Amino acid sequence: MNEPGNLSRRRLLGTLAAGGVLAGLQSLLPVWARPLADAAVTRKGNAEAASMDLAIRRESIDIAGGRIAATTINHSIPGPLVELYEGQEALLRVTNLLDEDASIHWHGVLLPFTMDGVPGVTFPGIKPGDTFEAHFRVRQSGTYWYHSHSGLQEQTGVYGPLVIHPREQEPFTYDRDYVVMLSDWTFEDPHVVLAKLKKMSDYYNFHRRTVVDFFEDVNRNGLGATLRDRLAWGNMRMSPTDIADVTGYTYTYLINGLHPAGNWTGLFRPGERVRLRFINGSAMTYFNVRLPGLPMTVVQADGQNVEPVETDEFQIGVAETFDVIVTPAAPSAYTIMAESMDRSGYARGTLAPRAGMSAAVPALRAPPRRTMRDMGMAMKDMQGMNMEAAPENQTPMAGYDHGMHATAPADKSMAGMTMAPAAPVVARHGPDNHGPGNTGIPDMERNRLGEPGTGLEHTGHRVLTYARLRGITPVRDKREPSRTVELHLTGNMERYMWSFDGRKFSEVTSPVHFPYGERIRLILVNDTMMEHPIHLHGMFMELENGQDEHLPRKHTISVKPAERVSLLITADEPGRWAFHCHFLYHMKLGMFRVVEVS
Amino acid sequence: MKRMQIIRISLHVLAILLASLVVFRGAMAQDESNTGLDPLQRSYPRVYDTASGVPPGWPAPAGDADIYHFLLIDRLEAGFGGRENIIAWDAQGWIGGDYNKFWFKTEGEGAQGVTPEDAEIQALYSRTISPFWDFQAGARYDIQPSPERAHAVIGIQGLAPQWFEVDATAFLSHRGDATFRLDIEYEWLLTQRLILQPRAAINAAAQAVQELGLGSGINNSELGLRLRYEIRREFSPYIGVSWKKTWGDTAALARADGAETSSLYFLAGLRLWF
Predict the structure, then answer these.
(1) Chain B closest-CA separation from residue A240 CA (Å)
(2) Which of A321, A324, A404, B184 could form a disulfide with A544 if both were Cys (CB 3.0 to 4.6 A apart)?
(3) Based on C-alpha coordinates, what's the Rg of chain A?
(4) Could you read off the pLDDT of A292-314 as tens digits, one per residue?
(5) pLDDT per residue as tens digits for the range B101-132
(6) What is the CA radius of gyration of chain B?
(7) ipTM higher than 0.90?
(8) Dist CA B128 CA B101 (whole Å)
(9) pTM for this structure?
(10) Which residues lie across from A521 on neighbouring strands?
(11) CA distance B143 to A477
């Protein structure tokens, strides 16, 4: 447990937030307008065993400023906070009150694979009217979440936060504790969204380049450069504005179930250390998160403690979590600003000393554009293109065995961050184009761990990069990997097809095999023009980001376009585990594999 | 007499559709076949699903072989100018998976208020052969002009570099005439919703087809420019111009017939998709 003195204070404050000031208000407001007291982590007590009932049902609720039949867990979206303690025997009972199959997957939680909740991989799914009991011993701590793994159910509301309190004292202190769960909500049937993408993949993109942009570019870069740029993109038949498949055109972005006007508010007393547990529970949306005027100290990533890193903004991929600590000193309100990566909308909340206060909401910044680097083009091909000139390490390495021992690029994010130099080329793509399901391959595969995420190249403030994540606990398994598995992230935006190695799940003939007990190096190469949040169930992946013995452990890794990343996995959890892109529609379309540890 | 003709035409169309569906279903079945057990599966008894290694009867974790469908009415328009005002349509659609689709196309044109001069329907099997291209084969049936005519069809359709939508097709009629058609479209975004679409279509024949007034070589062409406003992506009214011209022997035959060889139309129409 944490320091007892601190705990009682925290408990008091939590109770204040949860039951005191807001209790009267809450009963009057519809669910979507309530500053979710559930988001305050209250620490109900550390018993030997904990059990909780979750009921999934279809019901009409108020959300995102409208009313619609949605899929709730215990009558709310997001579902209730599942709070566990390390060392407990957990029993989570999931009852399906829908007229279709349902499921709940415990994202990032270590457990026997039969409890993992993936229909068609770990169990047959929960039939209508049935209850599934997930029981497991809690072996970890940190911030996680849970969500449906059945079809497109997650998009209709079946997700919620999961927090595990550690047995040992945490390497940081705080006075307040809030979950900040980000998500994307649409009033459209997700099957209709998917069908539209299949018919016209840029259906939701209203940031496409127009004739006006052409003339602006000519003005800025000259006619020759602009034409070369247009020809390069046209040759590949890809769009530099393809940042998000589904956008603010249909999505309302939520914080703890509240749309921007609902303004979820977390209370603090000036000078307190406030822990914010950011969880990206979106189906399709990356967010760039900042609190203008408040620096953040990142203390956990994917539930794993990291050396504290101070930053002003971070990008959170779908299914990732980041825990940050902020210390608001003034008795004023601070906006929690979560811009969708394509800048078609935002989720917004507030930290304030009193309910009802709010701060200015910054305007959306200009939509980002993909660059030739995202295409994996060689620099010589980029001369004169709409692209920052950058020095390049011209040493291509043939084999991936060298992988990431190439030095991580110098991190400029401390010094006002302009643009990281072009990351080192670590490999060239082989001859395999991966068939009709894949539109292009990058000539140059780069290590991009030191680069800020899309749209964060020129913010003028500090931005978190993967290269800066350093685990607190040293890597336990120091063996050299006995096996390398390489998978390419592939896709065809024109036909809206997504896969690994150009093959959809239904086209592969066997699971990916990790021999039990072996140390595996997993190489992911992104052949597409967009980021993909790749999630491995059941085991953490140690990201080879140059932090030597202190590699950060991730359950979900966002792989940038034309990037090659290397991950280490100890295959010590026997069973069948899902491995997939956490963009919901990409997973549904077959960017999915089963990893078998045996 | 007229009723008999309609019935006969309907039967023809039906036969073509059925034949295409049979071909299509065969191809789809091939898509689903996924045989061959992997040695890794042996650790699990009664395993049949090779991709996931799960027991029989469990659902698929990713429904990635679903069937989707699309119907695009690209042009539904009235043209004003030339010798007489015209109406025209051009629609196509598909139903299928990522690799195999049943594809149909129809287009036609005629003077306003009378039976169209030209009306055709195509039923095709479409196979994904590369990231941006489909190979298509099937049948075309000309309902007009009379006497009606059946063709075998072979072609490619897809997206060429620099974003040109291309449809290139060869036809062989049941009388042995070979004809060709090339259709190219481009889209220019003036704004996110205001879109200018140039289009070029060329028809050619390998030999003269006297009945239809066609010479060999390039017969006719159409250059069009349509400006649409996407009220929704699926629904956009447009205005435009279209310049139609006949060439070579076809033009000579037209002139001899007293018909125009070049006409300019102003267009108003609707573009819809579902």
Answers:
(1) 14
(2) A404
(3) 23
(4) 999 999 999 999 999 999 999 99
(5) 999 999 999 998 888 889 999 999 999 999 99
(6) 23
(7) no
(8) 8
(9) 0.87
(10) A484, A568
(11) 74
